[in-house]
Amino acid sequence: MPTASAHEPSLLLSEPSELILLEQQGLSFGQQLGAPAEDAQSLLASPRYASFVSVIERDLAELSSRDGIALSQFPLDPQRLNYVFDARWLRSPRARFQLVGVVNRLDMRFATPKECGQLRLIYRLSLQPEGRPVVRLPMTVNVIRPLPMAPGGSCRAMAQQWRALPSTASERVAAVGRRVARLPPMSGLETNFQNLHGPGTPDADDHAEYVLRSFEVRRERLVPRLLLNTPRADLDAAERKALVGWIAKNFMDIDAGRSVLPDRFLATRAISVSPRGLSRPANRVFSSLLASELDSRVFAELPYAKAKMARSPRGLLRRLDGFTCTGCHQSRAVAGFHLPGEERDPDQTFNALAVGVSPHLHEELGWRGRMLASIAEGATFVEPRPFPERPTASGLYGSHCGLGDPSFADWTCQAGLECRDSHHDEVGFCAPVLRSSGDACENARVVARPGASGDQLVADPPEVCQGEPPDSIPCITNRYGFPLGSCSVACARPGTRSGSSVCAMMLVSGYEQVCFPLEEPIEDCVRKRGLVAAMTTRACSVDEPCRDDYGCGRYPGSAPGTGACVPPYFLFDFRVDGPRLDR
Predict the structure, then answer these.
(1) How distant, in Å, are the alpha carbons of 140, 327, 574 from that of 210?
(2) 114-147 in b/e burial notation, b at 16+ Cβ within 10 A?
(3) Residues 254, 256, 262, CA angle at the centre, nearest 5°?
(4) Are strands 551-553 and 417-420 parallel, antiparallel or unpaired?
(5) Which stretch of DSSP H or E encloses residue 98?
(6) CA neighbours closer than 13 Å in the CB half-sphere of residue 507
(7) Burial level of 169, CB count in 10 A (0-12/13-18/19+)?
(8) pLDDT tens for residues 173-193?
(9) Which tens digits make up the pLDDT trace of 285-331?
(10) Bridge partner residues of 192 (DSSP)
(11) Closest CA to 212 of 75, 328, 340, 366
(12) CA distance linking residue 141 with residue 89, whole number of Å
């Protein structure tokens, strides 16, 4: 039966059964690094992995020294509720990196002019606690294998090879294994990991930070390198002036999505924040850096009439923001990730993700596929790279939509949906006119605030969901961990679907404080203590995505690739803190 992994295999392989076979054929993380075994302790025998771990440990030591950060999760410290990534996982014999995706990034050739883009092998850190199921942790690493050009500089043959992958799974796995073995060796590695997770408060989100880094292979070590199209946040006035000049000179390349920011502006480390995507100033590096230039109309006279995508100053900066590591990773993502991967155990329903790709990645595959086909046919591909938050024109539920700015005028919604001004920004999202189960019901404005405890949230009054008081569906507000609120009501039969809604078991406020510290399986604790309840929410699948800041989680009886929309931090695999037995 098709699952959420049933994508075009020439672009993405993410079916767990195929990935397990590919690991056995040489695509395991340890084999890519030349390590003697797959557990993290054994990986340290690889100079590449050891040098990578040293950099991450220094990052964590620096970021964990800030105010408000707990030194450990247990015992609970009510004054320090922001928990950090445990660096010991990277050296543990209980930890390993699972292959969660093989991604053809021929579309990255704009940044690799001597290559046909890259093949990316995506791995996710997992932990095997004693006597417990495998726990996946919020960290991915991406091994980069260059896709070489043919003599004469053509990428046509490479595109044709990937389009010709066999249709049967066993033959496809064998073909991919052979092709990867013939590629040039690993040239780099990228990582995205959650360095911090903290609880929500009356004026702040249940929030997280993510470290983004890129490395190059140098003398068998992994050395940090500059991040693509991601400027430093500390550019001085002269550097900002030079950046403005570069933007004006490269306007049409920016519009097309093929610009490459010069090294002198770039950062080597970035930190993205979640939830709320590009409404968070930290995720919009260009807009934050150049706010005064925008206000002074420095960008007013650029040739917007010739542009296809960036048709206004605000649209231009938002386009640049979307090309940064921070902006892209927080655009239509699942808790800061685009390929967290499906659960390998098909029978696991508690704390299990039903859809292992983000709405951004799933939708952008269409554009990538058109590019691949064009190159395979020897044609010139001219379609601009889409905004990462709006890869298609479909206007489905959750799609981002325009609120008046000319750059987003054609970001409309399907019939029956309206553009909801959720964060008082230039972009909203498509939502039903009549709010029902799982729909947003509490708009908010984000106010930047330094420190580890997240930005300040100024929420609007909760709205009435479907029905008339007192019989209307209640709005569960953000303070209980539901970004933008969620229309939800108690239900009697978990697994029952009605229209776009489904009855699913949801965790109840306070479960972390009660159950996380106990030497007891979390699933037993929440059930015995009444900390889980049957509530209505929106049903989901890869083609029926959740709105921003919600993940598609499995529930008992759900068909493969289908689930219920839940706040992603209700899934413990998306947070560094968690139940004692599972950490």
Answers:
(1) 11, 12, 11
(2) ebbbbbbbbbbbbbeeeeebbbbbbbbbbbbbbb
(3) 35
(4) unpaired
(5) strand 95-105
(6) 27
(7) middle
(8) 999 999 999 999 999 999 999
(9) 999 999 999 999 999 999 999 999 999 999 999 999 999 999 999 99
(10) 140, 212
(11) 328
(12) 14
Hey, what are 349's tokens?
Answer: 């329903």
CB 421 within 8 A of CB 457: no
36 CA to centre of own chain: 31
Please tell me the distance from the alpha carbon of residue 457 to that of residue 439, in angstroms, as a whole number. 19
What single letter denotes the amino acid at residue 246?
Answer: W
| Torsions phi, psi for 57 (to 5 deg) | -65, -40
Q: How far apart are CA 269 and CA 273, in angstroms?
A: 14
Q: State how far the Cα of 338 lies from the Cα of 391, in Å rounded to an integer.
A: 13
- What are the DSSP calls for 446-501, one per residue? EE---STT--EEEEPPPPP-SS-TTSSPPEE-GGGT-TT-EE--B-SSTT-EETTE
User: What does the pLDDT read at residue 466?
Assistant: 81
Residue with tokens 């990986």: 43
Residues 360 and 345: their CA atoms lie apart, in Å, by: 25
Longest dimension (CA), the chain: 72
Closest Cα to residue 572, out of 194, 202, 78?
194
CA distances from 372 to 17, 61, 106, 472 (A): 25, 42, 7, 49
Give the pair of three-digit tokens for residue 426: 């230039």
Given a cut of 80, is residue 77 above it in pLDDT? Answer: no
- In a 13 Å sphere around the CA of 258, the CA atoms on its Cβ side amount to 14
In one-letter notation, the amino acid at residue 48 is: R
CA-based Rg of the chain, rounded to a whole angstrom? Answer: 23
Helix axes 359-376, 156-163, angle to 10 degrees: 120
**Nearest Cα to 282, choosing from 448, 75, 48?**
448
Rounded Cα gap, residues 329 and 283, in angstroms: 9
What is the pTM (predicted TM-score) of this model? 0.96
If DSSP states are collapsed to H, E and C, what string results for 254-278? HHHCCCCCCHHHECCEEEEEECCHH
Instruction: Please give the Cα distance from 579 to 583 (Å, whole number).
Output: 6
Are 463 and 491 within 8 A, CB to CB?
A: no
Asked if the peptide bond before residue 275 counts as cis, ω within 30 degrees of 0, the response is yes
Structure letter (DSSP) for residue 334: B
